[in-house]
Amino acid sequence: MQLDPEATETATPVTCARCGTAADGTPPTWTCSVENGSRRYFCDDCARANLRAIESRLDSSWW
Q: What count of Cα atoms within 13 Å lies in the side-chain half-sphere of residue 10?
């Protein structure tokens, strides 16, 4: 079963939880993290800069 990209994309702009960069929809290369029950999105640059912390499953407040 293949998902329809238009059905899974949000209509509201997504903002990076770290730097505040805004994007239309959810960019497929951004990182999504669920922290305390809410989704947090991180842009390519922020995810790349904090890759070790992300892979260690540290909450973004620790970065």
A: 12
